[in-house]
Design a protein that fits this description.
Number of domains: 1
Distance between the termini: 20 Å
Helix content: 25-40%
Largest sheet: 5 strands, mixed
Shape: globular
Length: 156
């Protein structure tokens, strides 16, 4: 049975996907005390990137915002793999997003709103977080966006 968070996702027509397998020597998420930290999550859908390239060149800002939302879903999958139930999330603490950007693109914050807005929709006040939006030259697999999150979880 899904909980409150997964019901909120379902109302948006979304589900928590399977955890994206690591591309190298790391874990998708680790827990330390009351925090879970995810590795950078790419916008993988069923094992592949739906779009590649730089935002502001091959990828529109609107497409990138949608991809940031996919990254957020993948981050939630990684968190769930560690804690079992997303209702145990007490707060989304920090979101760090990387946007592979054309040299003149400066709209990274708007792109990352795709993830931030999703966290607000499914967690309410618990989804309000600190955030960094960073433009970079290139990301793994030529992904347009990558997101990592830190969440606080209920103590065991």
């Amino acid at each position: 049975m899904s909980g409150v968070v997964e019901a909120a996702l379902a109302e948006l027509g979304l589900t928590v996907p399977q955890v994206v397998p690591p591309l190298a020597a790391y874990q998708p998420a680790v827990r330390s005390g009351v925090y879970v930290y995810t590795a950078g999550q790419l916008p993988m859908v069923e094992g592949k990137l739906p779009v590649t390239g730089k935002v502001g060149a091959e990828v529109t800002p609107e497409e990138a915002k949608d991809l940031a939302r996919v990254c957020a879903l993948n981050a939630l999958a990684a968190v769930k793999s560690v804690i079992g139930d997303l209702d145990r999330v007490e707060r989304v603490v920090k979101v760090v997003g990387f946007v592979a950007s054309a040299s003149d693109f400066t709209g990274q914050p708007a792109v990352l709103n795709g993830a931030s807005e999703l966290f607000g929709q499914v967690f309410g006040d618990k989804g309000v977080h600190a955030r960094s939006a960073v433009g970079v030259a290139v990301l793994p697999l030529d992904a347009p966006v990558e997101i990592e999150i830190q969440v606080e979880v209920a103590a065991d």
